[in-house]
Design brief:
The complex is a heterodimer of chains A (417) and B (275). Helix content of chain A is 47%, strand content 12%. Chain A has helices at 2-22, 41-53, 67-76, 92-98, 105-114, 118-123, 146-151, 161-174, 189-201, 218-232, 246-255, 266-272, 316-327, 329-339, 352-357, 364-368, 380-395, 401-416; strands at 26-32, 56-62, 84-88, 125-126, 129-130, 133-136, 141-145, 260-264, 284-286, 300-301, 305-308, 371-372. With 417 residues, chain A is of the alpha/beta class. The longest helix of chain A is centred in the N-terminal third of the chain and has 21 residues, at 2-22. Chain A has two domains: 2-138 and 304-372, Periplasmic binding protein-like II (D-Maltodextrin-Binding Protein, domain 2), CATH 3.40.190; 141-301 and 379-416, D-Maltodextrin-Binding Protein, domain 2. In chain A, the strands form four sheets. A five-stranded mixed β-sheet of chain A has the order 2-1-3-11-6. Chain B has 275 residues and is mainly α. Chain B has 15 helices and two strands. Chain B has helices at residues 2-25, 29-32, 47-54, 61-64, 66-97, 103-113, 118-131, 138-163, 166-174, 179-190, 192-208, 211-216, 224-229, 239-259, 261-270; strands at residues 232-233, 236-237. Chain B has a two-stranded antiparallel ribbon. In chain B, α5 (66-97) packs parallel to α8 (138-163) and α11 (192-208) crosses α15. Classes of the chains: A alpha/beta (417), B mainly alpha (275). The interface between A and B is medium-sized, with 39 and 27 residues.
Chain lengths: 417, 275
Amino acid sequence: MKKALSILLVGLIASLFGSIALAGTEITVIMPDHEADILGYFEQKALSFEKKTGTKVNIVSASWDRVADKLLPALAAGSSAYDVCEFDNCWVAQFAETEWLLPLDDYAGVEYVEDMLPALNSLFSARGHLYGVTWNNDMRFFMYNTRILEDAGITGPPLTWNELIEQSRRLMAAGTAKYGFIEGWEMGQALANAQTVFAHSFGGRLLDEKGNPTLDSSECVAALQFMVDLLHKYNIINPASLTSSQEVSQNVFLRGDTAFFPQAWPGLYSYSRSSDVSNIVGEVEVAPKPLGVTKDIGAALSLPEALAIPKTSRHPDEAWAFIQFISNKKTNKAQSLAIGSLPIWTELFNDPELLRLYPYWKQFGQQAKYLHGLPQVTWYSEFSRVCQVETMNALTQVKTVEEATRDMMKAVEAIEK
Amino acid sequence: MLIYALVVLIFLFTVAPFCWLIISSISIKTELLSVPPHWIPKNPTLRSYKEIIFGGVRTTRAARYFKQAVGNSIIVAGSVTALCLVIGSVASYSFTRLRFRGRRSLLLMILATQMIPAVGIIIPIYVIMMNLHLLDTHLGLFVTYSSFVLPLMIWIMMGYFQTIPIDIEDAARMDGCSRLGALVRVVLPLAAPGLAATGIFAFIVAWNEFFFALILTETATKTLPVLISEFSTKFGADYVMMSTGGVLASLPPVILALTFQRFIIKGLTGGAIKG
């Protein structure tokens, strides 16, 4: 008995010293699960950072849809629970207004940011300050399946929505694809994203420069009408779009059931080349421009995520060291090689090793001019929710496009007040 | 005949989602999404179970933390159930048998706490936990869960105590038992079916709780419902892993319910008629 107690006591003391030895500087990073996390990429990098600096990194993960629920109470309560947080570009206005984040201008300096893609820095800047450094450059491309098009006798991808309709009908008639494409239009943020990009592809925008709603502009109404018509008039889009997530739409495309993927994320190109998850290895190409109502107009979404430092962080220097480690050119290139994500550094778009793997990056310059971020207003989450509900009402024909637009305007004006 | 048809219908309505959960967990993703859907998977596999239980090269972070989350859920739900049973039974006994000033108001106040939506009190609770250094601790979750499980238990158990004739208790008192002695030796054994049913109910409430666990835990004390929600990425959910997690997470309450099945049936009807 005495022996057992002694062992227990020694064990307790040893574990106490063990915990003291580990209790050096520790930073806590909160971030949602990414496609990159499937390979444990971010965790591996955190371990490399620990080895290099001796600063322990505690990664707090959360599901994508819940990370805001977890982060916002902590920020609002002034908690120092997190030293680094990931944030979306639609949160920038709100986070800047509430002064929850540390401006990174002094940390980053001009030298560090000037080689990054300028569009990314401006997406995470507000009130003249930089609040986040992008780590996941999620810019969307219009991808298509060359084999399905060729089998239907089509030589090149569509450049406009009308061409898309015409080509989809041809390939569906030829039986080379079940539908032209499928969208992830289930009730959720992706639906609000879709409304944004369709509006831009018709030459409109949901909010003007001052943040006033322009949802009832002729362009926005035409865009919403077109989304409805894709489902109910042209019948070229899989009706399961209304209950599909983005991942489902990706799976359907990778199965070879559809020919087009209008807003494909960079990693999709890599997935399409892996026979583990794809039936269309070597068949995917990137179109020269995203789709639009005319050949001059096109729109693609830019939905990057950045790392930021909450003002309440107890270790801002270590937090910045971590952000720098994750976002520097070497790590950023390794990330692109590992998971096919787009770099954040201009120079890496000409890197021969990366271009061999991802030849479509050559078209990045051409596509970049069509990119749009999400609207930046402090009340974006409420705005997004209203848009999701009313867009779904229109898509399911519970309301006409005019009714949905009218109700959307009313609700958004009420939020604005 | 109609009654049997209704029973079958209710049985299917109750069991079908659980069957689909099991089927989803042993299906491969492409088959799960195939159109039209089918009940019996053509290529059933236990790969997701293997991945969660034994790990693998491509195991996700959520899968790696699954066993830890099971442990956390057992600790939190188990301790909440145990403590709430002890305190709850004494409290509900007092409310049933003792007549004291403010009894009715106190009872209504306990009931009123159940009407406050969780989202309305999450920031104050977060601040309290932060100041007490109880964020990401079992104790923090235990205190929070007890705050809403305990009132429920008090109200439910009062029904059971009211069914026990006061004469039995008086007899025990006359034989020399103190009030506490009568409670422990006579009343609680008689109320055992009710306690078992209420205990399982408390366990299930604490086991399934998501919102507070999401906000108040980080990595060390993350519970199963939160972890299962993490089988997803920016582009959607991993239905197979989520279903596997769901099947495994539902096992402890099911085992508990089957173990105490005899008591539950007695307990469910016991509180229905007052003595």
